[in-house]
């Protein structure tokens, strides 16, 4: 990302992690426990971090809040 953090989505560990060049820590903000089965992570031109996963999961982190953009919820 713009702060040189490497974001890692882990299916096996069921979550998202950040690597700052020294250590790997679990990403923890309100709602981050819902980030399971994440397969891809990308940033946009505004610096938002996007998480995509199985079954159409789509989340955006704007640096403060995590928001669910998944269109069809799995039942």
List the keywords.
mainly beta, three-stranded antiparallel sheet, 75 residues, 7 strands, four-stranded antiparallel sheet
Overall description:
The chain has 75 residues and is an all-beta fold. It is 0% helix and 41% strand.
Cα(first) to Cα(last) distance is 33 Å
β content, as a range? 35-45%
- Helical stretch count? 0
Give me the secondary-structure category: mainly beta
The backbone outline, from C-alpha atoms, is globular
The largest sheet, given as strand count, sense and whether it forms a barrel, is:
4 strands, antiparallel
User: Radius of gyration from the CA trace?
Assistant: 12 Å
Strand order of the largest sheet: 4-5-6-7
Strands, count:
7
Q: What's the rounded overall pLDDT mean?
A: 88
SSE layout and pairing:
Elements: E1 6-10, E2 15-19, E3 24-26, E4 38-43, E5 49-53, E6 58-61, E7 66-68
Antiparallel strand pairs: 1-2, 2-3, 4-5, 5-6, 6-7
Quick structural overview:
This protein has strands spanning 6-10, 15-19, 24-26, 38-43, 49-53, 58-61, 66-68. It is mainly beta and 75 residues long.
């Amino acid at each position: 990302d713009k702060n040189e953090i490497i974001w890692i989505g882990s299916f096996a560990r069921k979550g998202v992690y950040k690597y700052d060049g020294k250590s790997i820590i679990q990403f923890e903000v309100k709602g981050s426990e819902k980030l399971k089965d994440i397969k891809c992570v990308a940033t946009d031109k505004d610096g938002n971090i996007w998480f995509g996963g199985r079954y159409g999961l789509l989340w955006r982190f704007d640096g403060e809040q995590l928001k669910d953009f998944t269109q069809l919820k799995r039942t």
